[in-house]
């Protein structure tokens, strides 16, 4: 079996950590049990470019239980949990190509390795598999029946491809499922981002000024959790509707140029490039801490920061100090990459339970409906979204009401007035 992980001796530790995560993933467990019986993915080759965490490992096990032949690579050079990667190789015989801290060349070699078995389905977290297939491995496009995309950033890229008519196979935007972005993006990113910042810095958030750049679902989650830790939250936005919502939620809204001189912590979650740049670095106070929880490490203009600095050093794990000519120090966490995965463990497994349930069920859906899917980006079918929510509530022993026949009729009629 072809694979590339850091150390197979870590496999036992990884196995226990996967088992721990699985205890909080009852929805995916129920899907896995059904997959084991029905084998809906029998013989289907899957390439998954995802964060190699305990939760991803449980998804990979579920897909294999359903009959899939799966290969896994990392969707971020710093997000791999090496013990988990080793466990998938040693205990599950799943080829994994991922090492925490891998350089850019290795990262792309691993992507090509994951595509080496000519997949029929891709699973992406940022659309790097799709972009590689459309640039360097176009020879594999004809064999693809579909793909899934986990992130906001990836969906933006894929919709752009579809609009320009260059997308060569159908993709389901898992990120757009309500059971994904309303929970994973908000509660998962919120908690895990704060977790990563605190683990990396051990600094107190209470009483600080915490600048959140981008008030999408991820930004909402981080703002909510930072405020819950006692920080005074400032939001920066370019969208007037989101900025207005942030104001109504009780946060101060400022342009980044005005937030830069007052912020103690800065976290970008926009999906765009150079959100924090030269003018902001020049205005920041001594000791400002800058990090990113958007998918790619482009939101902070690190090249410009390096050019402004007279010295730089790693002062503790995942914390790099840039000293300015005037003596000010700016600290960048996790090389500007996803801080929740670079310095912490990513989203809690109970929220990833729903996200990865979407991945598993959408893979099954594509296999069943391959003949009628067009080359465009689809939403997750509403029936899948609602079934996952139902299963999650059931696992929490929570019951809800059902419409009576009279109520159903009323909602679907126009004859009855006030």
UniProtKB/TrEMBL annotation:
Positions bound to substrate: 53, 125, 150, 180, 184
HAMAP family listed in its UniProt record: AdoHcyase (MF_00563)
Start and end residues of each S-adenosyl-L-homocysteine hydrolase NAD binding domain: 185-346
Annotated EC: 3.13.2.1
UniProt protein name: Adenosylhomocysteinase
Source organism phylogeny: Bacteria, Pseudomonadati, Thermodesulfobacteriota, Syntrophobacteria, Syntrophobacterales
Annotated NAD(+) binding sites: 151-153, 185, 214-221, 237, 293-295, 340, 347
Keyword Signal attributed: no
Catalyzed reactions: S-adenosyl-L-homocysteine + H2O = L-homocysteine + adenosine
Keywords annotated in UniProt: Cytoplasm, Hydrolase, NAD, One-carbon metabolism
Pathway where it operates: Amino-acid biosynthesis; L-homocysteine biosynthesis; L-homocysteine from S-adenosyl-L-homocysteine: step 1/1
Binding note for cofactor: Binds 1 NAD(+) per subunit.
Localization terms from the record: Cytoplasm
Pfam families in the record: AdoHcyase (PF05221), AdoHcyase_NAD (PF00670)
SMART domains: AdoHcyase, AdoHcyase_NAD
